[in-house]
Specification:
Helix content is about 35%, strand content about 15%. The chain is built from ten helices and twelve strands. Bound molecules: pyridoxal-5'-phosphate.
Length: about 350
């Protein structure tokens, strides 16, 4: 007998590479290519560092109020955490506490199975259809909870709101988590449903559409009861998850609606242009409603394209997993970065 027999062993999630080299075109972790709102810079300058001697506000009022006001919901409908990773992890811990399997797709955000393993939650992965779409009927059976990323990652495919509602309707006895990390780039949000279905939790992040991956802020919407349960679990775990600068700078970003709309529009326009260019080069992909395109080339191996781009200082993401190992997930960068990507791909394909 060794203490190691009782270690809570897990195979951790592998985040995308954060290279130390400068001048690399980084299209591998779906960060926003544009800097945070100017209001964030201003709030940063005005932040009283002397206040760091105190504990931060445990109920995160400034941040929660800014989110509630932006989305026109009550503050009792909002939960915040250290990135949506923290929010979803806390939701798994809080709501998935039965012996039944939770359900999520076979191809989706690869942290879900890691949290399930960590918390010893049984799970079943339901295969996406060949076009990477979700069949709501796969989620009708008895289960301990459901997790859907919409739009999905890494596929970029959007599930229509009717299908999401159908899944919620068939699972009124468990919690349904809808991870909307990419919804601001063209998804259909389930937010309008939070007061219609008390078993719905909608999760969002500041990491993609609000250009603040480095600050670590995620949030969730739900009915007052579901949010209260999440808060009870959070306050039993760590009362001070959100640091003072995050609360202030996050609120500043949320308050700048014009900048948010301008930058998300820019990413969407670039994405639509790049879709056309990639198709002209022979790439195939399902339609993306996110800030990335998940594509393969019928004549070349994904690994080969990945390596070629890497030697030309462009990093994209590739997953060594069944069904998707020929695909590249290409984040949408600035127009200049995407022009360079297309130029290098043209060289590679001899066009
Ligand atoms: C990026 C991402 C997250 C995590 O975002 P953070 O807020 O940075 O933790 C969660 N879910 C999906 C599907 C993502 O792509």
């Amino acid at each position: 007998m060794s203490w190691e027999d009782n270690v809570r062993k897990v195979v951790p999630y592998t985040p995308g590479e954060q290279p130390k080299i400068k001048n690399i075109i980084k299209l591998n972790t779906n960060e926003n290519p544009y800097p945070p709102s100017p209001l964030v810079y201003k709030a940063y300058e005005e932040t009283e560092l002397a206040d760091l001697r105190k504990y931060p506000d445990p109920v995160c009022s400034v941040l929660v109020d800014s989110i509630a006001s932006f989305y026109d919901v009550k503050k009792e409908n909002v939960f915040v955490g250290v990135g949506s990773d923290d929010v979803i992890s806390m939701a798994f811990l809080t709501f998935f506490n039965s012996d039944k399997h939770i359900l999520f797709p076979d191809i989706t955000y690869s942290f879900y199975d890691v949290w399930a393993d960590l918390y010893r939650i049984p799970y079943k992965q339901m295969p996406l259809k060949d076009d990477f779409s979700i069949d709501p009927k796969d989620y009708y059976g008895e289960n301990g909870g459901v997790v859907i990323a919409n739009p999905n990652a890494p596929t970029g495919v959007r599930l229509p709101l009717e299908a999401v509602e159908d899944i919620i309707l068939h699972n009124r006895d468990v919690v349904v988590i809808v991870d909307e990390a990419y919804v601001d780039f063209g998804g259909e949000s389930a937010l309008p449903l939070i007061n219609k279905y008390d078993n719905l939790l909608v999760v969002r992040t500041f990491s993609k559409s609000r250009s603040l991956a480095g600050l670590r802020i995620g949030y969730a919407f739900g009915c007052e009861k579901i949010i209260k349960y999440l808060l009870d679990a959070k306050f039993s775990f760590n009362s001070y998850t959100m640091n003072m600068p995050s609360l202030i700078l996050g609120a500043a970003a949320m308050n700048d609606r014009a900048y948010f709309e301008e930058t998300t529009d820019k990413v969407i326009n670039t994405r639509e242009r790049v879709k056309k260019q990639l198709r002209d080069l022979g790439f195939v992909f399902e339609d993306s409603k996110t800030n990335f395109i998940f594509a393969r080339h019928p004549d070349r191996h994904g690994r080969e394209i990945f390596d070629y781009l890497r030697t030309h200082d462009i990093i994209v993401r590739r997953f060594d997993k069944p069904r998707i190992d020929e695909y590249l997930r290409i984040s949408i960068g600035t127009d200049e970065e995407m022009d360079r990507l297309i130029e290098v791909l043209k060289e590679y394909l001899g066009r």
